[in-house]
Amino acid sequence: MADVTNGERCASPQELFNSIAAQGELVKSLKARKASKEEIDSAVKMLLSLKTSYKAAMGEDYKADCPPGNSAPNSHSDPKAVDDKEDFVDPWTVRTSSAKGIDYDKLIVQFGSSKIDKELVNRIERATGQRPHRFLRRGVFFSHRDMNQVLDAYENKKPFYLYTGRGPSSEAMHVGHLIPFIFTKWLQDVFDVPLVVQMSDDEKYLWKDLTLEQVYGYTLENAKDIIACGFDVNKTFIFSDLDYVGMSPGFYKNVVKIQKHVTFNQVKGIFGFTDSDCIGKISFPAIQAAPSFSTSFPQIFHGRADVQCLIPCAIDQDPYFRMTRDVAPRIGYPKPALLHSTFFPALQGAQTKMSASDPNSSIFLTDTAKQIKTKVNKHAFSGGRDTIEEHRQFGGNCDVDVSFMYLTFFLEDDDKLEQIRKDYTSGAMLTGELKKELIEVLQPLIAEHQARRKEVTDEMVKEFMTPRQLSFHFQ
């Protein structure tokens, strides 16, 4: 899967123009084949959102016969092509001008997904008999597609499986990369279902200036960090695209089926590809889509085509799976369901980008206790006031304070988190004290992860990555 923290692309006016044309075509095709009202409404919302972005970028309404005159399309276009006041999210770029981060309610409307509300969280609790994970309780996972359908199946003793992934673009992962894996581990435990983890090393080779040997090496190193999250080898298959696609006829057949049902115009519209992009990029979305279908893993599902997939991922990956959900019924498969997470902020604030090339932009899984303390104290963006006197009088702003944001991800105790929020907001707690709370949460978390990772041998990685039957029996 694409790794948003390393993204560089932004949409140019020409790309937005292409997106609108392709989305318009999609709306027409959905209406022509009498698709469900939900699907059509979602596609129309997306079309209107794209037209709004185009108007913001160009200062005039979209006209089908009037493409933007002077925008030479390329894959690294001007980041200011869309109005800086507008949030922009795609699989490679997340941009917001707000210190609070992305407006997720607007994103739900733009993408046409559904909000994870209290009712759904309560239903997950009833179905599993387990207290909902803190990511659900606090809205870290905030949006979904068809989660109620997955719960219907589960309650009726019908199987489903989990699929998530990682784009291995560097050897060292940071704490933000753990978010989908921490949550997926919880889902696997409470539902007792199989999991497939795609390492999209082919994607990173196509998008980055890396050799095949480098990206495959990153896959093996990143797999150790994923395994260290505690996944059960009897229930988990981790695979490298560079390895698995070539040895699995079932997987490749699904790639080809998907490719046949998605036009070049559609991928240009969905992903902003241009005529100067290599054909590998244009065909890659089908490879990210294929694990959504159980027949891609015959060794696990023994040819069953009806096992639904649930995908926990950051919401920037949703365009891949909107495409997948459109294709699925046309090739005879159930649509994958999704659970979308918010974005993990950089230390310098929610409007800045985490980068593997900037060691101070995040807490890395290789950091020492001393490095963690230094980074938080020196670089974590503060919502505090300029002076202690002002802070005591007016209080701090938890909505923009990165230390508080990180605590919402990693501090398990809800009551303690709420007390910290009240104390910081009232001015009773100072910025230095808030940072100390975060350091005391992160240091043991990272140290424990490092200890578990040391136990992961090359032989264990090989076992996780060997195609095999998992300890589930699908008739």
Provide tags for this entry:
475 residues; two-stranded antiparallel sheet; alpha/beta
Number of DSSP strand runs: 9
The order of strands across the largest sheet is 3-4-9-8-5-6-7
Radius of gyration: 22 Å
SSE class: alpha/beta
Rounded mean pLDDT is 90
Uncertain parts = 4-10, 70-82
Quick take:
The chain is an alpha/beta fold. The protein has 21 helices and nine strands. It has helices at 13-32, 37-58, 104-111, 118-128, 134-137, 147-155, 175-191, 201-207, 212-227, 241-247, 249-260, 264-271, 279-289, 298-301, 318-327, 369-379, 388-394, 402-410, 414-426, 431-454, 458-464, and strands at 88-89, 94-95, 114-115, 141-145, 160-166, 195-199, 236-240, 308-314, 337-341.
Summarize the structure in words.
The chain has 475 residues and is of the alpha/beta class. It has 21 helices and nine strands. The strands form two sheets. It has a seven-stranded mixed sheet, with helices on both faces. Helix 15 links the parallel strand 8 (308-314) and strand 9 (337-341). Helix 1 runs antiparallel to helix 2. The radius of gyration is 22 Å and the shape is globular. Mean pLDDT is 90; it is low at 4-10 and 70-82.
